[in-house]
Amino acid sequence: MTEPGKPPSPSRIEEWIGKDADALWKRVTHMIENNYPDVFSPEWLFGGKKYGWSLRYKKGKSFCTLIPEKNRFALLIVFGAEERKKVEAIRHELSPRTGKHYDEAATYHDGKWLFFIVDDDRMVVDVERLLAVKRKTKNARYVA
Question: What's the CATH fold of domain 10-134?
Answer without folding.
Answer: Aspartate Aminotransferase, domain 1 (3.90.1150)
